[in-house]
Give the backbone structure.
Amino acid sequence: MIPIDSLIGSGRKQISFAEVPVDKATEYAAEDADFTLRLYEALAPKVREAGLEPLLLEVEQPLVPVLMDMERTGVLLDVEVLAKQSKVLEKRLVEIEHDIETLAGYKFNINSTQQLQKVLFEDLKLPTKGKTAKGTGFATGQSVLEELADLHDLPRLVLEYRELAKLKGTYIDALPTQVDVAGRVHTSYHQTVAATGRLSSQDPNLQNIPVRTEVGRQIRKAFVASPGCVLLAADYSQIELRILAHIADDETLKEAFANDEDVHRRTASEVYSVALKDVTSEMRAVAKTANFAIIYGVSAFGLSQQTDLSVAEAREFIDTYFKRYPRVKEYMDGSIRKAREEGFVSTLLGRRRFLPEIHSDNRQRREFAERIAINTPIQGTAADLIKVAMIRIHAAMAPLKSRMILQVHDELVFDVVTSEKENVAELVTREMEGAMQLSVPLKVDLGSGPNWLEAK
DNA sequence: ACTATCACG
DNA sequence: ACGTACGTGATAGTA
């Protein structure tokens, strides 16, 4: 949990002994008085030369006790809710297994991609859609099965089986085994894992609790408030696009946020050259996907895969997008140029990510580095921003009994004593929206309820 | 230990 | 012609 090496960004191996939990480092320091000193002397000049002292001293280090409190507090889990869901899913999984067996003509392990390939591509003679990443076989992932579902019922059943088996195995049955005697689960947050400066969460990961499917969402009902409390969830609205608007200094994008517009609708209106009121839901959906694509570093192929657009149509969409948002294009080119010239890209608070592959002769590697050069300043600035908010919120909440319990990249969740609810809602909104002064307003959406599902 | 898959932002 | 969106972590199967 000592966050120093993420600030250096190179020489990780030499200083990897810095990656020990805080309590272990304390233990080592007690046994070996030289430990902390050697660590400090090796790293301090590097941090200072890189201009990273403010980020270290004002963000990463103050965040440590905040995360400690969140980890120690944990979140109350209603294991009864999960036990009921487990039984329902078990029953449905057995039904699906039976139906799949009937269609295949024999029993097989649906979890085995090898056995599934044999059924799909040898027995049923369905068309293959490409190899897996490592080329060890034919892909059977979600997008492949969705295409095959038009040709046969079995792929659709496998998709349903996969969804339910994932939810049951990773969350519904796993989480109850990880509660403490008080019925609470405690994650570990890591400050030095994600290359962009985001936190990561493990054992258990509480940053990937399902929400996208209806069955998955129900799992959030098991994350409940403590007695006498409610859960309050606060999430940044469109944080990465707002940061893009600020960094790129694009007038159209800034205006959309200044007016609190529906930014995807505005993008569709700009690119398709129609009035806001004439934007169809299809146009808005494409624009929404395109806005994500922009943040990740666009490719026409990638956009075409995620939409109904052909590669040519996707290319035209992107061209038009850059005509309407020229500063966004300039930002992207500038970020890639910076990576080439300086060897790294930076977030608003100066956090660095080194990109040696930006000079690679291998086009695939080089273009990957270019997309990282585009994405990291955006994703990393969002990480900077919420960390600042967390530190200020933690300080402001010190006199209160309510607790910050979860961080999910652009969202904070609080276990709030009922009588403190108005107070906490006000201070959370104020500190999140005021964490940084950008050229666009920051907006936070709040919700509360007896569990995480109803708080969103 | 590695691979494929899929959960989240 | 080529391979293709950014960042993570957990699970099950397989070698």
